Amino acid sequence: MTPDPAKVAILISGRGSNMRRLIDAADNYEVVLVASNRPDAPGLDWAAERGIATWSEDSRGQDRAAFDDKLAVAIETSGAGTIALAGFMRILGPDFIRRFEGRMLNIHPSLLPKYKGLDTHARALEAGDAVHGCSVHVVTEELDAGEVVAQAEVPVKEGDTVSTLEARVLAEEHRLYPAALARFVAR
Question: How many domains are there within the chain?
Answer without folding.
Answer: 1
